[in-house]
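Note to self: keep these together.
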Amino acid sequence: MTDDALARAIDEAARDLPYPDGRPGRFLDMAAVAALAGRFGLPPRHVEIAALGAGICPLRYARNLRAFTMAEQARLLASRAALVGLGGLGGGLVENLVRAGVGIVRAADGDVFEETNLNRQLLSCQATLGAPKAVAAAARAAAVNPSVAFTAHAGFLDEAGMAALLAGADVAVDALGGLADRPALVAAARSRNVPLVTGAVAGYTAIVATVRPGEPSPSEIFGGSGPAAEDVLGCPSPAVMAVAALMAAEAIRLLAGRPPALAGKALIVDLETMHFDTVSF
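Structure:
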């Protein structure tokens, strides 16, 4: 099958529908994407990329536009993200990255769900207690958006493992808890020359930053001694969900080809007082 044959098949399968704002548009629904992927022996995201290139929007992304142009949506589908941590922040990040259409997501977490995760971790529920977080994340990603090539390693990573996970990634995302393992991830991102989006929560206070290769990370400034702040102050769900969304927004900006909003800066959030401040490193 040729590219021309795929283009003709996409055009024939497309439907004329209005966008939510009333503009006319042409769309490819998920049943058509799946059928064309099977017919041409292609990953579904490749069909969606080809459709976007022809000005036809996969229906699942209709409400991403005007937030992203068709070219940016296609770039998201061709992009690669590496995510370390699939707990509170990681579960929210999986949800946002997959729904946005980030094409390839590689993740890792060696932990299993326990009852104390239920207050905040999106992927946890009574049915998943005792189950590996990586398995739950992969199942959620497949259920939400099968066009995304999502893989999750059920294991803890050292610096070499993190570097392997980050190979070929366009962005690394730090959803680790505490500070102990963050220096290894910062070092791995530097070695791979990959920008790192990082975030942390302690009580209703949180921080989000983008670390370009060679620049300082908040974790290096704060140090790693003593008990984790989140263990002392807690991890309420609104703070965790909000920070996961902020991190996802910054990662998606980068993957869409836009400049980072938080490079060399950190967004400090206090949800108790609803104060948002940005500081420069």
